[in-house]
Amino acid sequence: MHFLYVVVSAVPAQRKLDPNAASNVVCDKSVNLKQFDINRALLSICGGIQGQIQKCQGAPTSTTGVFGGAKFTAQPVNQGATINVSKGRWEAGIFAAQAICGTNGFSAIFPLGTSNGNLKVTMGSSGQASVAPAGKPVAPKAVQKTPAPQAAPALASFAQIDISKLTGNGQEASQAAQNMCPASLGRDELQHRHDIAEDAELEIFNPAIAKATGAEKDTLQCQKLRNKILKLTCEVGAAKAKGNTAKAEEEAVKLNKNIGLVNECGGK
């Protein structure tokens, strides 16, 4: 059986992610990084995978991502392969490894992500000082498993805004999504959150559903619907922020449909 787990905390070891997203994880306790730096460094590989960029571009044979004190290094396990890892697979692997190592450094193997085989990844120190803003918490406040979690900070990763594991009806999922995608974030961050929720749908939920059967499959499908509510809520907000009323109304229709479908899930 295949189960889908997600990390929604600044301390990933508190909750598991997809157990297949990283293997051979070895923690380096001599390195302790700031989550603020990690969140930004993970989007800096391959010259940047923020926003609408959904995978590593340019087919590099190795790549690094650095922000403040954090540094990611990735290279194919098989010599001669090039890197084409998607944002969803990349984030899932990082947070699976962090579920074990927290903010300590680590080395791990991520499945696939290259033109031929798996990806070897390390998270370590860049040798630079953290650039976390003074007077602000380095790590986002842990999101509790409640119907209405608080919004994660800007430049959020999917693990920080995920609502799929919440129980309850469609209206409760909608409220949780609104908390994660308030209009105050602005159009760029709203679009970013839409993009990573959509990537999770394609890279995490769809493959897990394809492998599952019976009650497990039903549960995963309901989790996917909650993620759609999150994705569409962010998209409606981004469209409104851009002044695109027609797009906002179009996505709102889809949003309401998915709210109704979650109601049919029976709280799974």
Summarize the structure.
The chain is an alpha+beta fold and 268 residues long.
Describe the structure.
The protein has 268 residues and is an alpha+beta fold. The protein has 7 helices and 5 strands. The protein has helices at 35-41, 87-101, 158-161, 170-180, 187-211, 214-241, 245-263; strands at residues 23-32, 63-67, 70-76, 104-110, 119-125. The chain has a 5-stranded antiparallel sheet with strand order 1-4-5-3-2. Helix 6 (214-241) packs antiparallel against helix 7. The radius of gyration is 18 Å and the shape is globular. The two termini are 17 Å apart. 47% of the residues are buried. Mean pLDDT is 82; it is low at 1-16, 134-148 and 150-154.
Unreliable runs: 1-16, 134-148, 150-154
Described by strand count, sense and barrel closure, the largest sheet is: 5 strands, antiparallel
Q: Let me know the average pLDDT.
A: 82
Q: How many E-type strands?
A: 5
Shape: globular
Helical stretch count?
7
String of helices and strands? EHEEHEEHHHHH
Quote the distance from N terminus to C terminus: 17 Å
What percent strand?
5-15%
Tell me the strand order in the biggest sheet.
1-4-5-3-2
Fraction in helix: 40-55%
Tell me the structural class. Answer: alpha+beta
What Rg, in angstroms, do the CA atoms define? 18 Å
